């Protein structure tokens, strides 16, 4: 066999493929906007606020003279898109003027409340931060600054001097809500959470004991796709890491019964893990001050499908609050507030008006 | 167009580089082998391949040319594949101790719920180890890169995540290092081999959290 002939095979294959597929100018995977959306740092058309030394992607809906609810998304690293979207109705565009409805998802509460949504530091369409820069204390400080921003805005625009808000946290947003209340219990009137992450080491241990091992998912389409993607994309830059991370979004935890089509704008990959690292320590507990100092009530909402594998979870979480209630939504799991926002909104209204 | 010309140039040069590169399993000129591997790399895959030894007079070495096809086994999908063609020869060999640098050209494809991708790339590996009569062990330090990748997002990704994703050819979407070990033993014409290690993006990092934590492959070679 002639070696020279053999060596030409890959070159010929490549040239034929390039010709057939029409290789034009090469795109840069790290150029903002190619793989994932630009953040507020790169796109002047996105709504924003400036607080605590950074800009954050944020929007508010409703009459500011009404009580304020601050919505805290999950992740960490995700965004508020699912809060204002609704299955089969609206996948909220990142540009408000391109949306088909203006009260999708839980933003329907705007008829009674002033609803504030923001993407946490480094997450969603808020600007990126490198690994190791953002920590939980910074998230708590950001939330405090967001609350101050809107309370001040309310006073400026209406003359109403309010000093409390409602919080609504989903998943990791529940951890952030609790961490905030533990530090500033006087600033929160009541708190609503949809399937919040664990508040203490004891709850973490219960959660892990009752969750399936990641190895049990070998062979699942999403995991094969995620692993194989490393042959094509490596996560050494923000843009590529954020893009690759979406491959596993809403898929990695079968017990959560998440709808894999739950929309999001961007998953901040470099934020995702390090902001939960603190919760892995043996003395993790973000509730030490709550029982003694928090005067408000807590409502825990969960999907029935998530309740099944974790039956003791709601009681374990609620035990950290002096006044707590529990409501389960039938037929949904961890993404239930996107799948049944009307039902979840009704539960929230009922709780807050009691 | 300049970058495209550069990439084509690199591909034209690679076989020349490869001609000076070398062998992992020393197959003498005129001999051949079929091989099959199974393991995690980066997903659970099976590889089948063919290798043949040649004598090359002007470098006074035997070289081995190989071609292989790898596919995931959990749920076989013809759109997920990795084709490699490579050249290997020994650079330094002294009393069984061997240093070699195998080089492969790689065509990879994948399709998942988010996108389809086709990449042209290469891997370069430095192998240092010892070959006994019936066994061998090597340390490996590798570098894998995709020169260009054609990416097309699915309608699902555009609908639920990012409608303005740019379909097309991307330059340099992937590169990573590997550090690990290879070992094997031979029984008559059959070789049993293992390859295991860690893929890393940042050479100085202990691990790369967004990468699979390790690779591990079990192989069987039949020489004829």
Description:
The complex is a heterodimer of chains A (354) and B (224). Chain A is of the alpha/beta class and 354 residues long. Chain A is built from 12 helices and 8 strands. The N and C termini of chain A lie far apart (85 Å). Chain B is 11% helix and 61% strand. Chain B has helices spanning 2-19, 155-160; strands at residues 32-40, 44-56, 61-72, 81-88, 90-94, 97-100, 103-111, 115-131, 135-153, 168-187, 190-200, 215-223. In chain B, strand 3 (61-72) and strand 4 (81-88) form a beta hairpin. The longest helix of chain B is centred in the first third of the chain and has 18 residues, at 2-19. Chain B starts with a helix and ends with a strand. Mean pLDDT of chain B is 84; it is low at 1-24. At the A-B interface, helix 1, helix 5 and helix 6 of A face helix 1, strand 2, strand 3, strand 4 and strand 7 of B.
Keyword list:
heterodimer; A: 354 residues; alpha/beta; 8-stranded mixed β-sheet; 12 helices; 32% helix; globular; B: 224 residues; mainly beta; 10-stranded antiparallel barrel; 2 helices; 11% helix; 61% strand
Determine the number of helices of chain B (DSSP H or I, runs of at least 4 residues).
2
Poorly predicted runs of chain B: 1-24
Shape of chain B: elongated
Order of helices and strands of chain A: HEEEEHEHEHHHHHEHHEHH
Query: What is the number of E strands of chain B?
Result: 12
> CA-to-CA gap between the ends of chain A?
85 Å
Strand order of the largest sheet of chain B: 1-2-3-4-7-8-9-10-11-12
Question: How much helix, percentage-wise, in residues of chain B?
Answer: 10-25%
Shape of chain A: globular
Largest sheet of chain B: 10 strands, antiparallel, barrel
What's the tally of helices of chain A? 12
Biggest β-sheet: strands ordered side by side in the sheet of chain A: 1-2-4-3-5-6-7-8
Set down the secondary structure blueprint.
The complex is a heterodimer of chains A (354) and B (224).
Chain A: H1 3-21, E1 48-51, E2 54-61, E3 68-72, E4 114-118, H2 136-158, E5 165-170, H3 172-183, E6 188-194, H4 201-209, H5 221-228, H6 238-245, H7 269-272, H8 290-293, E7 298-303, H9 304-307, H10 313-318, E8 324-329, H11 336-339, H12 341-352
Parallel strand pairs in A: 3-4, 3-5, 5-6, 6-7, 7-8
Antiparallel strand pairs in A: 1-2, 2-4
Chain B: H1 2-19, E1 32-40, E2 44-56, E3 61-72, E4 81-88, E5 90-94, E6 97-100, E7 103-111, E8 115-131, E9 135-153, H2 155-160, E10 168-187, E11 190-200, E12 215-223
Antiparallel strand pairs in B: 1-2, 1-12, 2-3, 3-4, 4-7, 5-6, 6-8, 7-8, 8-9, 9-10, 10-11, 11-12
